[in-house]
Amino acid sequence: MANDSGAEFSFLNNRRSAVNTARLPGFGLGLPLAVLATSLLFALLCAAVGHQTYGSLQALDPPTAMDSQYYASLIEEQVSSALIAVGVLASIYAVGLVGAWFWYARRVMGPEVAFRRHVEALKNGDYKARVKLRDGDAFLGLAQDLNDLAMLLGADEKPDERPSAAPEA
After folding, report:
1. Whether residue 76 sits in one domain with residue 132
2. Domain match, 99 and 142 both
3. Is the domain of 28 the same as that of 101?
4. Residues 73 and 139 in one domain
5. pTM, full prediction
6. Which tens digits make up the pLDDT trace of 82-138?
7. How many whole angstroms separate alpha carbon 78 and alpha carbon 56?
8. 3 part of a folded domain
9. What is the distance, to the nearest Å, from the Cα of residue 60 to the centroid of all Cα atoms in its chain?
10. Nearest 5°: phi and psi at 16?
11. Same domain, 96 and 130
């Protein structure tokens, strides 16, 4: 008899997670890699804006005492335009991350709801229930396997019979 401490289940869950990550790296690493790639792009764009602003300021002749006010306003204009550009880039970056999160939630995490409903229907004896996923959703193969299993279970059950609790020994 297995012990009920749950230690073996914890080991199996960790092992299953590692195997799934190795077999389906896109699901385990897809979102973090997308965030890393967009962060790198954002950093490069901010560096380009900073480099352009620095280059514009470096091209100026050194100010003399008479036109220091002119140069101060020119520098302020350059810095404020650079801050606006970085703000626009940050907004685009945030919208991109939200978009990636919605895509991930819909395509990868969304099928969980369909699977839960299907398993609940099977537990209630409804073997005609099917998992319906959208094209492009993750786990389409698993959904088809569950549908095949439901069909086999429905074929094995006679119309008048419902599964009952196993007799105690």
Report:
1. no
2. no
3. yes
4. no
5. 0.50
6. 888 888 888 888 888 888 788 777 777 778 888 888 888 888 888 888 888 887 777
7. 8
8. no
9. 46
10. -60, -40
11. no
Q: How many domains does the chain have?
A: 2
Query: What pLDDT sits at residue 30?
Result: 67
**135 occurs within a structural domain:** yes
Residues 6+ apart with CB under 8 A from 118: 129, 130, 131, 146, 150
Instruction: Using only the alpha carbons of the chain, give its radius of gyration.
Output: 30
143-159 residue pLDDT tens: 888 888 888 888 877 55
Range of the domain at 123: 110-156
Please give the full DSSP string across the chain, using - where no structure is assigned.
Answer: ---TTSHHHHHHHHHHHHHHHHH-HHHHHHHHHHHHHHHHHHHHHHHHHHHHHHHHHHTSPPPPSTTHHHHHHHHHHHHHHHHHHHHHHHHHHHHHHHHHHHHHIIIIITHHHHHHHHHHHHHTT-TT------TT-TTHHHHHHHHHHHHHHHHHS-TT----PPPP-
Distance CA 137, CA 135 (A): 6
Are 42 and 74 part of one and the same domain? yes
CA atoms within 13 A on the CB side of 70: 8
